[in-house]
Amino acid sequence: MTISTSLDRRQFGLGLASLAGLALHTPSWAQQATEKIVVAESQGFSWAIPYLATSKNYWKNHGIEATTLQFTSGRLAFDAAVAGKAQFATSTDSVVGLAGANGVPAVIVAEFSRLSSGMVVAARTDRGIQGGAQLKGKRVATTIGTSGHYFLSRFLSLHGLTLKDITLVNLRGPDAVTAVTKGDIDAFAWGWDAGQKAIADSGGKVKVLDDTGLEKVFLSHYVLTANESLVQSKPKLVEAAVRSLLDAEKFYRAQTADAIALVAERTKATVDTTKAGLDTVSVGVRLDNRLLDDLVLNAQWAVEAGLATPTKDDLRALYRKLIYTDALKAAAPDRVTLS
Questions:
Q1: Model pTM?
Q2: Which residues make beta-bridge pairs with 38?
Q3: 119-216: what CATH class?
Q4: pLDDT tens digits along 156-192
Q5: What is the CATH number that goes with domain 35-115+220-335?
Q6: I want to staple 94 with a disulfide (CB 3.0 to 4.6 A). Which of 150, 197, 231, 337 is the partner?
Q7: Where in the chain is the domain with CATH 3.40.190.10?
């Protein structure tokens, strides 16, 4: 498989607009001026916590007036932020790992959920695919440079295969569902909810492949990211954003049924499907060593996949700098266990 993808600082350059306004009755730790921000968001139940922060407007509690831009992947949301269209982006560790490997000055300010089984490989059974081993030589779609791309490589490894053993097709998640339903591709790697839609739309010709053992080789982290310049110039704004996520998590745990209904409304899925998906997710705002470990693994994969050039820098030290802990330490110090 050959991929010609060039990612550099200019592509990921983030021009942040200045923010100003008047806020009344904000907490003593929050900025006294209301900050108008844009949050670039991806789609799917895994992003439940930032969805709830917006649905319940917990941003307002902390002196923020937030609007959102919606994208079909964490990579696209991240790209929008670094292009100056948003101050924050919800993304995955795979996207940040790839960006960091290419010298992009963007950092993780909080993780809000993680999962192994939330991503799936959905395949057409009428193409002779009953398990991962039968993907060899098949046309398999995902979005290059995303957590789906990284997940696919790890899934293939469970069956003694690599990305070189398949024909990789670069498609967005919704387009992959359409393509597999029409028979234009043999399989795709994307979110659990996309797999369920493909099964429903294909009339029984698509199944989700067994992923036994996946947790040993893959864990996806869903994170809130910001540019280094924003973190350095407005640390209180970053802290306020993290506190908004903590409020959303509290609501999710206290009123789970109501929270699931709001997420289902946001994702245009049924409540039952959303609940089943969220049952696979470990929700929790945190920063820990597993996140750092997986960022390093993502960097190694990016180099092997030809998406980044090798670096002489110590990868663990490099990626530790891409995790900003001050905001979460101020808001909930027990949630930071990163050494």
A1: 0.77
A2: 67
A3: alpha beta
A4: 999 999 999 999 999 999 999 999 999 999 999 998 8
A5: 3.40.190.10
A6: 150
A7: 35-115+220-335, 119-216
